[in-house]
Design goal:
Length: 362
């Protein structure tokens, strides 16, 4: 049975202008206590999990800021199935061969580099601190540590001042890394309330510009042998992110750490947001859960269709019957209805049509 574990590491050296995640730049002194709390929470609940984890994803924040021995303690507390996918997010400027070698020794199988852009002025506009050269060095460090090619890259498009030439340069630069990534995620820049970006309307992304850049990315990545398998994700055959696929298929997963979310058969719950409260709850033997929700069968069926629409597998054809307004947005392939590249740009509009359909597939 597929089962995932997400570990949230909330520490960052700098908060990017677009970031609204549960991260802090002034709590590094809590790292040891926080890692111990994550370890203890995993040990406490592992017996209630449906089985060993088939995937573990360490996200943040900037997990690569955490000393590798602390991360190893957390990973050691998580029962993992043979061949489990274990991923750690890394900022390019924070890694070294020794750090990544320690990850390799601890059973990490995959790295995820937060690159966002390979154009200096675009990085500066996003509030990122690394340089294109540091990305190249990070990939070289990964190869030296035994991760040759076993890494993914995250990109963001639509930042203020990013021309189409800049976006092309980032895509070409990523594909030209030696060795190239097995997986690329390309996300449209979004404006999150409370962020520096939200307070500066002059830097808001343009929808038409982002649509053009998405279509361009799809052409370039597909031509390079990376197939789209979810709206914002492309991978070489056999290298889709198993952990993220759990989310899109309503799989079961456990969240460890502050603000981490869990899911089990339609019930979702999430932990307290701050690291201090998480550490205190675990130390006192209390549950760190802050809230929960449970979907009924109809709600789960509706969600299953909306999530499925985001993926290359699509949804059952009868759930999205042909209509003139869907022409060019959806491709009916046998028993499945799958978004076209243009349909992916307008996925929210198609999802509304899907939810309005009288055919609910259970």
């Amino acid at each position: 049975m597929a089962f995932g574990v997400y570990v949230h590491i909330p520490f960052c050296g700098h908060r990017c202008d677009y970031c609204a995640f549960a991260t802090w730049t002034d709590r590094h002194h809590l790292m040891a206590a926080y890692a111990a709390a994550c370890r203890d929470e995993a040990r406490r609940h592992a017996a209630t999990w449906p089985g060993p984890a088939t995937s573990v994803y360490v996200g943040g924040g900037t997990p690569s800021l955490l000393p590798p021995d602390l991360l190893a303690d957390v990973l050691d507390a998580i029962p993992r199935a043979p061949g489990a996918e274990t991923t750690v997010e890394c900022n390019p400027e924070t890694v070294s061969t020794s750090l990544l070698s320690a990850y390799r020794a601890g059973g990490v199988t995959r790295l995820s580099f937060g690159v966002q852009s390979l154009v200096p002025h675009v990085l500066a506009g996003l509030g990122r601190r690394h340089t294109p050269g540091q990305v190249e060095r990070a990939v070289a460090f990964a190869a030296e540590a035994g991760f040759a090619g076993r890494y993914s890259v995250d990109l963001i498009y639509g930042a203020a001042g990013e021309s189409k030439h800049d976006w092309a340069a980032s895509l070409d630069g990523v594909l030209g890394l030696d060795p190239p990534p097995l997986h690329v995620s390309a996300y449209a820049l979004t404006v999150e309330p409370g962020t520096p970006l939200a307070r500066d309307r002059a830097r808001y992304p343009d929808d038409d510009d982002q649509a053009d850049k998405y279509l361009y990315a799809d052409r370039v990545l597909s031509s390079a042998g990376l197939e789209w398998y979810e709206l914002s994700n492309w991978a070489r055959p056999g290298h889709a992110c198993r952990h993220n696929q759990l989310y899109w298929s309503q799989g079961n997963y456990a969240g460890i750490g502050c603000a981490a979310h869990s899911h089990r058969d339609g019930r979702r719950w999430w932990n307290v947001r701050t690291p201090e409260r998480f550490i205190e709850a675990v130390a006192r033997g209390r549950s760190p859960v802050a809230g929960q929700e449970e979907l009924d069968e109809v709600g789960r069926a509706s969600e299953r269709l909306v999530l499925g629409l985001r993926t290359r597998d699509g949804v059952p054809a009868e759930a999205l019957p042909w209509a003139p307004e869907l022409e060019g947005l959806v491709s009916w392939e046998g028993t499945r209805a799958v978004l076209t590249s243009r349909g992916r740009i307008l996925a929210n509009e198609v999802a509304i049509r899907l939810e309005m359909s009288s055919a609910v597939v259970l």
